[in-house]
Amino acid sequence: MSYLYFPGCSLKETGKSYDESLRAIFAKLEIPLVELPDWNCCGATSYMAVNEMKAYALAARNLALAEETSESEVNVVAPCSACYMVLSKVQKYMDEFSEISDTIHGALSDAGLKYTGKVKMRHPLDVIVNDFGLAALHQKIAQPLEGMKIACYYGCQLVRPYAEFDDQDDPQTMDLILQTLGAETVDWPLKTRCCGGTLTGTVENVGLRLNDILLKEAQKRGANAIATACSLCQFNLECYQNKIQKNYGTENVPVAYFTQIIGMALGLDDKDLGLHRSFVPFSKDLIKGGAHVHA
Amino acid sequence: MSTLHFERQIKYESELDSQFPKEIMEIPGGEHLATCIQCGTCSGACPLSIYMDHSPRKIIAMTRAGFKDDVLDSRTIWLCASCYSCTVECPKQIKITDTMYALKRKAIKENRYPKGFPVPVLAREFFGIVKKTGRNNERNLLLKLYLKTNVLRLFKQIPIGLKLFFKGRLGLKSEKIKKTKQLQTLLDAVERRTS
Question: What number is the ipTM of this complex?
Answer without folding.
Answer: 0.93
